[in-house]
């Protein structure tokens, strides 16, 4: 996944703070149409992760090519064993799916093309809360005809969140998750909720910012969080956020701020990715506490 691809995901996904449309749009229909799909094509990397966990392998006609990138996906190893597309209508049509799942907003051209061919398409909005994300897991599992697998996945996510939660009464650690392009997620986003659930106070609000906002280096230096998390360089090319992590100016506040790696593959998706996200945030919090001891 290129830096452009990642910026596109941020703009249209988690960090954008898009309004959540009703999840009921994805519910399985009644009657004859309720039969599980035989061949599903996913055009969204976040839906790929859920699909791989709840569908039969034989039901998966293809997933997105993004899922194969180990830097940007938590299922890259499995994804490389599955068919994939680059998201073109020609590829999807050639696979003759009876269901296509994609994110919202989706390509209008793609949606109209599939409609003309009577290929059922379900668009899923970006979940901005944990509850919305768990509901999305359940919706995908229902669509696949495997609701019990959805409930099992939800239970694993909830267990991971419980394990990552701080002890009652513990002091929150001020933190910033720095994303590609120098952006950070504020109130009303899934990342903000995950930070709060793992005992972190998101400094985006303290900086007077909201939604997806650019955080200048000067702001970090003037009012540093106790914990700064950022990604890893991809194929030797560092994003702006990664360059900030190595900026010499940060040396002046090294005694006041712990730095930790937050893998880019955890930035954009909910669902089972939240299991990894919770664990990484909790470990980073513990590292910050140890650094202050």
In short:
With 293 residues, the protein is of the alpha/beta class. The protein is 40% helix and 14% strand.
Outline the structure in words.
This protein has 293 residues and is an alpha/beta fold. 40% of the residues lie in helices and 14% in strands. The protein has helices at 3-12, 45-54, 76-79, 89-94, 108-116, 130-144, 147-164, 190-197, 203-206, 217-222, 240-245, 273-292; strands at 40-42, 60-64, 84-85, 99-103, 121-124, 173-178, 183-185, 200-202, 212-214, 227-230, 258-261. Strands 3-2-1-4-5 form a five-stranded parallel β-sheet, sandwiched between helices. β10, α11 (240-245) and β11 form a beta-alpha-beta unit. α2 packs across α6 (130-144) and α6 (130-144) runs antiparallel to α7. The longest helix is centred in the C-terminal third of the chain and has 20 residues, at 273-292.
Key terms:
alpha/beta, 4-stranded parallel sheet, 11 strands, 40% helix, elongated, disordered N terminus
Mean pLDDT figure:
85
Model regions low in confidence, pLDDT < 50 over at least 5 residues: 1-33
**Rg, nearest Å:** 20 Å
Q: Strand share of the residues?
A: 5-15%
- Based on CA inertia axes, which overall geometry fits? elongated
Number of helices: 12
Q: Biggest sheet: strands, sense, closure?
A: 5 strands, parallel
- How many strand units? 11
Strand order of the largest sheet: 3-2-1-4-5
The arrangement of helices and strands along the chain is: HEHEHEHEHEHHEEHEHEHEHEH
Instruction: Note the gap between the termini.
Output: 39 Å
> What is the share of helical residues?
25-40%
Structural class estimated from helices and strands: alpha/beta
